[in-house]
Design goal:
The structure is a homodimer.
Chain A: H1 13-17, H2 32-43, E1 54-60, H3 64-71, H4 76-82, E2 87-94, H5 107-124, E3 128-132, H6 137-143, E4 150-159, H7 169-176, E5 188-190
Antiparallel strand pairs in A: 1-2, 2-4, 3-4
């Protein structure tokens, strides 16, 4: 299933085609070379002082115990569909800079960027990515042995498209739901917070 | 000038070509349609509960007072080169969800993602983006009238490539510097923090 963004302005196909589905093909694994490419795209993301504060803890179906453990770190509502995703990850932020030990106030921001670049690569190779805020922080800390100074931020499901038929009815409805965003004029300002200007788009 | 990432594994050209330069062409503005496309790519980024916590305060050279005001929110070390970038932005995170007022712990993460998608679009249109942690938070708050509940996170310079000749000598050296990243094995773990596995790449 495809669900292109109803974009108001021209965007690259990788932008408009990107979508976070619930249905992943459980029978099609993500192979080693593909994983290497996805993680390589994350690797080359820009970051504050090139601190690269991202860590990915991965569970693929090929490594069944790892997949089960990462799956167990998601909240139940996400486990229902993410169980089928052949690669699951927890995105983790290192809270301080390695070079001087000082707090990195851009750690979460830069993990978000790295995961976005991972998604760009995935979309370019025909895979889909669905990120989740809904993870169990305590389970992450314990089951994944995340040490002090690191914080689990997101769950990330990666794989190839599945079908509607594999989803329970309530998730099918969610999968069909309309894609919505605020208009640009609600988040783009000229020169000052709230600043309006002719060039800022209403849509 | 191009400076492709010396990637160890296959990545999409938008990933490998992306680079954060210091030299932007001061004479080539970013027009309205291009701005709309860049911001549209940010608009369609995924976010926790679709909260879309990003705000961009923009100063283009076409709006000289706005450009000067946003430039004045960067630290001096960044103003030296960012003055030439025809579009400057401050990326701002809304700290709470609009739908229920609760704290959004993924706000910074999701701004990072939106700015990454903006960068994808920019690269696809032949522009470059250079994000900066080095902003003056107090100046942002005052000059840009950023209200309580919002936090300025990054400066973002956008424009077309400039030339080495426009940079002072110390910045030319920086511009020529080698691009470096940690190997995947230092940020990719299998199943548990620190977990090694055969599929995780050493490079």
């Amino acid at each position: 299933m495809d669900k292109p963004a109803p974009a108001s302005h021209d965007v690259h196909p990788l932008v408009s085609k990107r979508w976070s589905p619930l249905a992943f093909d459980p029978a099609r694994p993500v192979d080693d070379a593909t994983m290497a490419s996805l993680l390589e795209a994350a690797r080359w993301a820009p970051s504050s002082y090139n601190g690269q504060p991202w860590v990915y803890i991965v569970g693929r179906k090929q490594e069944a115990a790892s997949h089960a453990r990462v799956l167990g770190c998601l909240v139940e509502a996400n486990r229902r569909w993410a169980k089928d995703a052949p690669a699951l990850m927890i995105g983790v932020a290192r809270q301080s800079f390695a070079h001087n030990g000082k707090p990195n106030r851009h750690a979460a921001h830069d993990v978000g960027a790295a995961s976005a670049w991972l998604t760009v690569q995935a979309e370019s190779m025909g895979l889909r990515v669905h990120q989740m805020a809904g993870i169990d922080a305590e389970a992450c800390r314990e089951k994944l042995a995340i040490p002090e100074g690191y914080e689990a931020l997101t769950g990330i499901a990666v794989g190839y498209a599945g079908t509607m038929g594999q989803l329970p009815e309530d998730l099918r409805q969610r999968e069909r739901g309309e894609r919505m965003r605020k208009p640009q004029s609600e988040f783009v300002y000229d020169g000052v917070f709230g600043g309006a200007a002719g060039w800022v788009k209403k849509g």
